[in-house]
Amino acid sequence: MIVVTGGAGFIGSCLIFELNKRNRKDIIVVDEANFAKNCLNLANKQFQQFIEKSEFLNLAKNNQLPKTIEVIFHIGACSSTTLTDKEYFMQNNFQYTKELAQFSINNKIRFIYASSGATYGDGAQGFSDSNSTTSKLKPLNLYGLSKHLLDLWVIEKGFDKNIVGLKYFNVFGPNEYHKQDMRSLVCKSFDLVVKEKKMRLFKSYRTDYKDGEQKRDFIYVRDALRATLFFWDNPKANGIFNIGTGKARSWNDLAN
């Protein structure tokens, strides 16, 4: 049996699609019930059971989850870069993941969790996913901080030898429409590009970058999931890893 938290969200629902392609339908989807009810991402996906996220955590704490679970893909999190509720981030992103990680280790269940490229902050420390670099990072928002503190906890506990953390960079693709203003620029700009052959970019406020020449690592969701599933297929590969293309592209290049 496979668990996908955040299964009604963008990356989670695409992961379920990829698992279905492998003929895996014995899937427990974990998410917020109201969100899943009003989101179309689970349409045409095949899974065995839906569990509300708070209930799922209680079941894990009380060791009442099925003994047949092979892997937990913990994709669920609040990914807003503008929300300022630190307590919510610490509870929802940090504490929740700690509990699931500890449960997985105690029960010898493969645990693969979503970290984020947002942990790198302004990039002043470079983008190496080595543990020595991780300790020096300074995220620029509470979302990045919640993921960074989790990565630090994993390293401090030595759990990076047993579990996998994935620093997703700028993922784009289908099933992100519900994210509204937090959608990728690709998604937000698509209709405008089709109609007007134009897209609106961020102005540069740094003299060393011209308008539109700011760079990001954009990765299509199918490629991000191919990397994600690699770590399920290869259980001896553990640690915290960047999930990107490895090549930064400018906004102008993306627009073209």
- Count of helices? 9
Mean pLDDT: 93
Shape: globular
Using only CA atoms, what is the Rg?
18 Å
Low-confidence stretches: none
How would you name the oligomeric state of the polypeptide chains in this document? single chain
Q: What is the helix content?
A: 25-40%
Largest sheet: 7 strands, parallel
Structure explained in plain terms:
By secondary structure, this protein is an alpha/beta fold. The protein has nine helices and eleven strands. The protein has helices spanning about 10-20, 35, 55-60, 85-105, 130-135, 140-155, 185-195, 220-235, 250-255, and strands spanning about 1-5, 25-30, 50, 70-75, 110-115, 165-170, 170, 215, 220, 240-245, 250. The strands form three sheets. It has a seven-stranded parallel sheet, with helices on both faces. Helix 2 links the parallel strand 2 (about 25-30) and strand 3 (about 50). Helix 4 runs parallel beside helix 6 (about 140-155). The protein is globular and about 55 Å long.
List keywords for this structure.
256 residues; alpha/beta; 7-stranded parallel β-sheet; two-stranded parallel ribbon; 38% helix; 17% strand; globular
Short description:
The chain is α/β, with parallel strands linked by helices and 256 residues long. The chain is built from nine helices and eleven strands. 38% of the residues lie in helices and 17% in strands.
Task: Walk me through the topology.
Blueprint: E1 2-5, H1 10-21, E2 27-31, H2 33-37, E3 49-52, H3 53-61, E4 71-74, H4 86-106, E5 110-116, H5 131-134, H6 142-157, E6 164-168, E7 170-172, H7 185-196, E8 215-216, E9 218-220, H8 221-233, E10 239-243, E11 249-250, H9 251-255
Parallel strand pairs: 1-2, 1-4, 2-3, 4-5, 5-6, 6-10, 7-9
Antiparallel strand pairs: 8-11
Helix pairs in contact: 4-6
